[in-house]
């Protein structure tokens, strides 16, 4: 792994575990075993530029995983359940959701930096677009697909945050039992 990729990988994990404010440059340097000059060589604008690179890396990792899962299943209902089950499994076996959620970073930084807020917004939009594409393939109108995708994104992200704060996978288990109800043919989705 090259130095830039190593920095991004380690910093992403640290930011997810401790938040942006909770991680200092010295900690990143120590964990990466690099000099300050090496970090600034790859990220001349410092920690915020590194955070944006971490968010872009997360976007690629998360969306690639979702696309792969959604490609294996016939419909959105089955794909969503499989995705949530994978997140629950990771939480229960690894004790963390590192690699799946970035909500802590959003809540900390989105109001402080437009660049970070935009990077976060792009990631959420990419996730929603994956859901919308699968839902429209299932026969939902674009309008209903967008409404359902927003509900899915908010529920799953919120569920992950609840799991982390409560130190249990129970919120995601409840969501995995509840979300399939929105895919029932008799449910009318309110357009937002």
Unreliable spans are none
- Helix/strand/pairing category: mainly alpha
Average residue-wise pLDDT: 87
For the record, the CATH class of the domain at 55-183 is: Mainly Alpha
CATH superfamily of the domain at 55-183: Tetracycline Repressor, domain 2
Number of strands: 0
Helix-strand string: HHHHHHHHH
Percent of residues in beta strands:
under 5%
Quote the CATH topology of the domain at 55-183. Tetracycline Repressor, domain 2
Report, as a whole number of angstroms, the end-to-end distance.
Answer: 44 Å
Percent of residues in helices comes to over 70%
At CATH's second level, what is the architecture of the domain at 55-183? Orthogonal Bundle
Supply Rg: 18 Å
Shape: elongated
Helix run count: 9
Quaternary state of this entry equals single chain
């Amino acid at each position: 792994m090259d130095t830039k990729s190593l920095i991004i990988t380690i910093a992403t994990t640290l930011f997810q575990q401790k938040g942006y404010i909770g991680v200092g440059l010295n900690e990143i340097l120590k964990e990466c075993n690099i000099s300050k000059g090496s970090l600034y060589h790859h990220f001349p604008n410092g920690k915020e530029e590194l955070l944006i690179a971490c968010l872009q890396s997360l976007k690629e990792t998360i969306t690639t995983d979702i696309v792969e899962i959604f490609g294996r299943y016939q419909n959105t209902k089955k794909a969503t359940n499989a995705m949530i089950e994978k997140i629950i499994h990771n939480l229960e076996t690894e004790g963390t959701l590192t690699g799946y959620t970035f909500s802590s970073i959003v809540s900390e930084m989105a109001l402080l930096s437009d660049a970070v807020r935009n990077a976060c917004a792009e990631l959420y939009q990419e996730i929603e677009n994956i859901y919308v594409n699968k839902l429209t393939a299932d026969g939902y109108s674009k309008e209903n697909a967008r409404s359902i995708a927003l509900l899915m994104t908010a529920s799953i992200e919120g569920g992950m945050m609840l799991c982390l704060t409560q130190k249990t996978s129970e919120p995601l288990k409840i969501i995995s039992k509840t979300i399939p109800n929105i895919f029932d043919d008799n449910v009318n989705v309110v357009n937002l």
